[in-house]
Amino acid sequence: MNIIINMCRAVLNILYFFMKLRPVKKKVVFLSRQSNEPSIDIIELKREIERQHPEYETLVLCRKIGDGLSGKILYCFHILKQMWNLSNAEIVILDSYCISLSLLKQRSSLLVIQMWHSVGTMKKFAYSILDKPEGSSARLAHAMRMHKGYDFIFCAGEGYRAHVAEGFNYPENKIVVFPLPRVELLQRKSHADEMQENIFHAYPELTKKKNVLYVPTFRKGELEKAEFNQALSNLKVEFSLCSDKFNLIVKPHPLSGVKDEYDKFSSFDFLFVADYVISDYSCIIYEAAIRHIPLFFYAYDYDQYIAERDIYMDYPSEIPGKMYTKASEIVSAIKGNKFDAEKQELFLKKYVDYTMTDIVSSTINFIFTHRKC
């Protein structure tokens, strides 16, 4: 496998060499393989760059790696498109691993900013979980130069600078505290009002009772998925017993295969109408905490998850609430409003610098101050 990767890399670098003969343009390229559509973070940064620096061209290249052979072939053509645009760009901002960026030799003048796609951290990722069941192969990661070539990596707060440094395998002086733009949106009243109006218009039944948003982490293995399906079923049964008081909104991970009955809006959007949030190891807990929504932790598979994936923090003692393993217990806790607002606020302050003013504008100022051209 390594031989094939090295051969492909050599061929692509030859092609890339000729692409880089073109002069550098005032161009900012956004890269993502999280979705085929730009995230709210990319949209906000792009809009602010166009406002502050209209002389710069901005280009968004978002594409997930598709399923099957055809999906992978189409992504290979997308890599060529990435190469063509990276080869004469001045700045690139990405929120995930990008093959063409890390695998190939970039111009020394290219500024590369990794802003990642998660507000906070909890689950171990990348270099922290090499050769673990939910991680990558160490040999493959090194052959693919996973997460190489970044000038700066953004993180949401000081509390998780060391976690980010470990996950990306970078020194801490390369990790800079800049929360994602969505942190600003979470606190913007005009955005909250707009989202509430849109969601309640689409789902008027959500105006009549308290809304409980369940946002579980993705489970990778077939056994883990089966256990999740059972845990979800148990939760639905328990909430059906108090359906006169609560709406249960389930926003499964897109890769889970579970039907999303509220698919007109994202889990992020539903934070603007949620009265309670249930999660496990998902970083949406930071976003919910920013909106001061009571958090409850449904960690029915904690021991197994720690063994296969692991978590950076001391989960049972540090999470701002009790860890529940049974659906009946978590529903009872919500009914009894067993929630520690003070502990949740302290937890949030440790991991997310949500009080930073003008996050989007400050982020753009930092990026353009560190241009190499």
The helix tally amounts to 16
Distance between the termini: 37 Å
CATH architecture designation of the largest domain: 3-Layer(aba) Sandwich
- Shape descriptor reads globular
How many beta-strand runs?
11
The helix-strand sequence is HEHEHEHEHEHEHHEHEHEHEHHEHHH
Classified in CATH, the superfamily of the largest domain is CDP-glycerol glycerophosphotransferase, N-terminal domain
Proportion of β residues? 5-15%
* Major sheet characteristics: 6 strands, parallel
CATH class of the largest domain: Alpha Beta
* Range of helix content: 40-55%
Q: How many discrete domains? A: 2
Order of the strands making up the biggest sheet: 2-1-3-4-5-6
For the CA atoms, what is the radius of gyration? 21 Å
Examine the coordinates and then state which fold CATH places here, giving the name of the CATH topology of the largest domain. Rossmann fold
Structural class: alpha/beta
Whole-number mean pLDDT: 93
Uncertain residue ranges: none
